[in-house]
């Protein structure tokens, strides 16, 4: 039919609307010459089919033009890794401050015992807000301390994003192709499902490094010349308490390296689902309005859509981020092995109410918006450049 022919030919080879209508009408007249009403019904059906196929073709062509380039998995990973490096370095100070506020609310002491009231799950600590955290970290620990955990962030971001974004691309493309053939009404949900599945794979694969990063950011070291522990020593510190009672070859010991993975997945899966289901239609709409395909339009559309989508998703999932931080900084061995995400969320609710559940939400939004915008826009621009190199010049 017309839909198949228009999608397999170049634009200059496509028949005009009137020509396509004449061809289809001529084909269907012999079948429908029994009655005028039947002919009218056939014509109406043909118009509707032509209209829907044109819209579908336009939507698919637009999507493939900007984000479905025929690149290999390695090239997608390269694009994602570059994006991860830039994002991790730029937003790390916000992540440190957010983690400190959440850890303080969970009872981590950040001053001498005589200067604050402290209990296991709540404290009146030295930090009174975002600017106060920035100021005291710089004054007491040094400016460079705002990038504490950046090595862990890089070690985490490169493999995580390298798994996450390429897998998202592949899953989304295949789900969209499958639903377009069998269930077109489900196609808009492809980004949601693809984002959730891809993020789950990335999260579980790289979780121990995420655990080390959170503990490194939550810890406080004064300017005493002692080098703070790195990623490897931090992970060994996680295993040390259990090494006295369990063999390190026992899975019970290594299970500690995935302390809080349930909270992490519970946070990241809805974050990705909200983010991608918001980002995809928004960036496609922006690119449709811009019309022209070039590096600047790809960068602007993806950064704008990523910034908005990341901010919304971060705000919606903040309670789960608070629960994740508490699970990761927990030092009690029994609680590490037995606490669940649901119990942690209820504990936060009992101790701090709504304020406790949304502790650090401003910093989380301020971090996630630019981070998603940077990662997605850089990723898509590099894909665009690689695609341009692979595409022969038009004659």
TrEMBL record:
Q: Which family does it belong to?
A: Belongs to the mitochondrial carrier (TC 2.A.29) family.
The source organism is Papaver atlanticum
Q: Where are the Solcar repeats?
A: 71-174, 186-285, 297-385
- Chief localisation class: mitochondrion
Name the InterPro entries for this protein.
Answer: MCP, MCP_dom_sf, MCP_transmembrane, Mtm1-like
- Return the protein name: Mitochondrial carrier protein
Q: Which stretches are annotated as coiled coil?
A: none
Keyword set, alphabetical order: Membrane, Mitochondrion, Mitochondrion inner membrane, Repeat, Transmembrane, Transmembrane helix, Transport
Residue ranges, annotated region (Disordered)? 1-63
Q: According to its record, how does it sit in the membrane?
A: Multi-pass membrane protein
**Compositional bias of kind Basic and acidic residues:** 16-27
The subcellular location is: Mitochondrion inner membrane
Example GO biological process: mitochondrial transmembrane transport
> Does the keyword rRNA-binding feature in the UniProt annotation?
no
Polar residues bias (residue ranges): 1-13, 31-40
Q: Which Pfam families match?
A: Mito_carr
Q: Which GO terms describe its cellular component?
A: mitochondrial inner membrane
